[in-house]
Amino acid sequence: MKNILVLGSGCTKCKKTAEVIEKIAAELDVNVSVSKETSPQVIMKYGVMSTPAVVVNEQLVHSGSIPDTTKITSWLKEA
Length: 79
Known about the structure:
This protein has helices at about 10-30, 40-45, 70-75, and strands at about 1-5, 30-35, 55, 60-65.
């Protein structure tokens, strides 16, 4: 199972990012745990300056926008 953390203030883009990741994971039949984190302390721990940001298995993979389908698919298909 992949643990995915969406970092952000809880804004519309942050919520949309989590929804898109969950949707694509379901389409690909990949088991994921998607959670959202709004704590500024946690967000800063990852060195994120712009949100939404995405952390996959404790590795920051994206920040500053809603990721596109191609990027999300590549994260989900990685071993």
